[in-house]
Structure formats: structure tokens, C-alpha cells
Amino acid sequence: MRRLTALRNSPAVSKYRSHQLGEATIHDFLEFYEVNQYMPESKYAINRQRVVNLVRDDDELRTVAETLHERFGTTYRTQLMRLESRP
């Protein structure tokens, strides 16, 4: 229950509710899935599956989870490296 509350209160869901999910950032993704760039990709897969299982009956959260995964799921490490290398 606590994790669902955290997901519902996440910045990504706030952006979804204000019709601005397209403006979600890599940091919104990391927070939503509780991962960081130092974790192995297998940890993201585990966390993602947990989220998918939690949100399966909630259209709003399921949409956010799917959208974030599609946008950042396979490239978040590369995107973070680019951000960190900027002056």
C-alpha cells in the first residue's frame, strides 16, 4: 500500500494529471521505478516488474508506468551519462 501511495504522489503522475507527461524527466523515471544509474540493469527489470504488478488495476498508474518505460527504459543509462558529461 505504501508503494502505491508513493507512485500516486510521484512527480511523473503529477505531470500525467496535468497533461504534461511528455515533459517527464529521466529523474522522474528513476524515482518512479526506484532505480539509479549504478544499479545493474537486472535491478531495473525487477523493479519494473514489481511496479507492473502493483499498477495492473489502476489505469492512471499503468499508463504512466508504460509511458516512462517506453521513453526511458532501455536508454536511461545512456541519457544519464550524457547529462553528467555536460559542462
Descriptors:
single chain, 87 residues, mainly alpha, 70% helix, globular
Detailed description of the structure:
The protein has one domain (2-85). It is built from six helices and no strands. It has helices at 2-8, 11-17, 26-33, 41-55, 59-72, 76-85. Helix 3 packs across helix 5 (59-72) and helix 4 packs antiparallel against helix 5. The longest helix has 15 residues, at 41-55.
- Fraction of residues in H or I helices: over 70%
Rounded to the nearest angstrom, the radius of gyration is: 13 Å
Assembly state: single chain
For the biggest sheet, the summary is: none
Mean pLDDT metric = 93
Task: Give the strand tally.
Answer: 0
Distance between the termini: 41 Å
Indicate the proportion of strand residues.
Answer: under 5%
- Low-confidence segments, given as residue ranges, are none
Please count the helical segments: 6
Q: From N to C, what is the helix and strand string?
A: HHHHHH
Shape: globular
- Secondary structure class reads mainly alpha
Count of spatially separate domains: 1
